[in-house]
Design goal:
Length: about 240
């Protein structure tokens, strides 16, 4: 069973703050008063959660759900989920969602004039194995514009969610790609404290790339401690 840590009412110093004025929507949604953590009841702690029987191997291949291959650069995204002591976090549900290679989500809010891909839904999931490893096959997402400021573009990224022992135990973050020229102007990326920002960037992995088939990117996720991966304070439901 995964020993996922539940984020508390106090932000970690390594997470982006609730309020980051350059990221405009945080000025509306950030709390103005101290948060109160409601006690977790029996329902929250014992409610249904995904288990091994609910997750199919094909769920981890985001390229396999159309009638043909999606357009774009095929990638392998893999890594390991560990706790603060470097111990593997086993059997935890990882979910991902992302834009297609043209930078478009299948989402009614996303009206960016870029094409949808009938062979790419942009969502997948898998369980970490006994050593905490996970692996997805996907298409490299494209950057996309958003309305935060003039000429605002999100760097290419994949959203990640990790569930713990109950649906109320959830951590959400984003993985980026190395060398993206859009980092400097992105307030979501720059809201992450300096010392932890690089932890959201994956590493190109030639050794895990597959000849004549796909490039690989490695991204390890640390749940807490000095090496903790920055997590978003909430999933605001938008497509940024
Ligand atoms: Fe996004």
């Amino acid at each position: 069973m995964a020993e996922l840590i539940v984020p508390g009412p106090v932000e970690s110093a390594l997470d982006p703050p609730y309020l980051f004025p350059d990221y405009r929507s945080t000025t509306l949604r950030s709390p103005s008063r101290a948060l109160v953590m409601p006690p977790a009841g029996l329902t929250e702690l014992t409610g249904p959660r995904f288990g091994e029987g609910d997750v199919r191997d094909s769920d981890a291949d985001l390229t396999a759900h159309g009638t043909g291959e999606p357009i774009g650069e095929r990638i392998i995204v893999h890594g390991r989920v560990t706790d603060s002591e470097g111990r593997p976090v086993r059997n935890t549900l990882l979910e991902v969602w992302q834009a297609n290679s043209a930078g478009r989500y299948i989402h009614q809010v996303d009206q960016h004039p870029a094409p949808l891909d009938p062979n790419f839904v942009g969502a997948g999931r898998c369980l970490s194995d006994d050593d905490g490893h996970y692996r997805f096959v996907s298409i490299k997402p494209g950057p996309y514009p958003w309305k935060n400021h003039t000429n605002a573009w999100r760097p290419a990224h994949i959203h990640f969610s990790l569930f713990g022992r109950a649906f109320t135990q959830r951590l959400v973050t984003q993985m980026y790609f190395p060398g993206d020229p859009l980092f400097g102007q992105d307030p979501i990326y720059n809201a992450i404290p300096d010392e932890a920002r690089d932890r959201t960037i994956s590493r190109f992995s030639l050794e895990r790339s597959q000849d004549n088939w796909a490039l690989a990117f490695e991204w390890n996720i640390v749940l807490r401690g000095r090496e903790q991966t920055p997590f978003e304070t909430e999933d605001d439901g938008d497509v940024a």
